[in-house]
Specification:
alpha/beta, 8 helices, 9-stranded mixed beta sheet, binds iron/sulfur cluster
Length: about 230
């Protein structure tokens, strides 16, 4: 399996924010989000091939109960189910961070961290070849697959928000799901790769959270480390 990076840090987003975790970032993604902050695992995938045993050996060296499979899109990584099963056999709590465009197909997972992509993710004309823009738009939002994850796993629904348009799209998507998520499981995160840019969105997002019962979600890793690989 091609691994973009593997590291030990604290979880920066979501319900488990602050929890020490080993992160296994697979390389490769079926989307091309305009604001992707891990382009080295998606637009321009890099990394080394690691054997399953090497990944497990790394995990065993760290005193963490939590492991996060992230990407890129971990659900398109060859061998992801085997890796997840082996991590569960080590009694680790396993989070899978996915855009929820690929069916779970029974993968072992304790927390499905679902991050559906809104229209703000679509690259602008000229940023990437046209065919790729169309593919991104066709793939980015799959309410049926989000429902499938929510039906079978503990979950959180995370959205990156930059504007009121994004909040309207989130409301629209939630209305299209067959399963109504618990409001506190819907996490709104400010878009941005610096503390300053995150903070600019705060007032808008907090007001909407108070209205709907959603949860405001800071991106702790940006505050702590900036937009730095391996953190
Ligand atoms: S799904 Fe995630 S990794 Fe893939 S392009 Fe979008 S933000 Fe980047």
């Amino acid at each position: 399996m091609r691994i973009s990076e593997i590291f030990y840090s604290v979880q920066g987003e979501g319900e488990l924010t602050g929890v020490p975790s080993v992160f296994v970032r697979t390389s490769g993604c079926n989307l091309r989000c305009r604001w992707c902050d891990t382009k080295y695992a998606s637009w321009d995938p890099s990394g080394e091939v690691m054997e399953l045993s090497e990944i497990l050996d790394y995990v065993k060296t760290k005193p963490a109960n939590h492991v996060v499979l992230t990407g890129g899109e971990p659900m398109v990584a060859k061998g992801i189910s085997e890796l997840a099963e082996n991590l569960k056999n080590l009694n680790k709590h396993l989070t899978i961070e996915t855009a929820a465009t690929v069916l779970p197909d029974g993968v072992a997972c304790d927390l499905a961290s679902l991050s559906p992509k809104l229209s703000n993710s679509t690259p602008r004309s000229g940023e990437i070849e046209r065919g790729r823009i169309e593919k991104h738009d066709a793939r980015r939002l799959r309410p049926d697959i989000i429902d499938a994850w929510m039906a079978d796993y503990d979950y959180q629904l995370k959205f990156v928000v930059a504007s009121q348009t994004d909040l309207d799209e989130i409301d629209d998507l939630l209305g299209r799901l067959k399963i109504t998520p618990m409001a506190h499981k819907v996490l709104l995160m400010p878009e941005g790769v610096t503390t300053e840019s995150l903070s600019e969105r705060d007032a808008l997002i907090v007001a909407h959270c108070k209205q709907r019962g959603f949860r405001y979600c800071r991106r702790l890793h940006v505050d702590l480390f900036g937009n730095t690989p391996g953190t």
